[in-house]
Amino acid sequence: MTDALRKRFHAAHNNLRSKLAKGNIYFEGKGRLPSAGDMYYMTYDCDLEAGAQQHASGCSLKTSSSSSRKDVGENTRVIAGVNRYPELAAE
């Protein structure tokens, strides 16, 4: 991943977290989601990225071992098909 793409993902992720923290996210059929009192700005960790890429390259549907993630959580999602333009995922 390039530094420019990292910055796009990081900014997009923190933008969504900011909207959620302020109570500005709407969920279809549920209305506005509650605001968050203690949502922190996320920092980017290239070591976590490398571990996530290594795990994803193994095509496992299981989560990685918690000892490999520096006491952080993990979300997994399978997306069918081949995405040749990862930069579009940040939009």
UniProtKB/TrEMBL annotation:
Transmembrane segments: none annotated. Residues 11-77 form the SCP domain. InterPro entries: CAP_dom, CAP_sf. Gene3D superfamilies: CAP. It comes from the Eukaryota. Pfam families: CAP (PF00188). This is SCP domain-containing protein. It comes from Ancylostoma caninum.
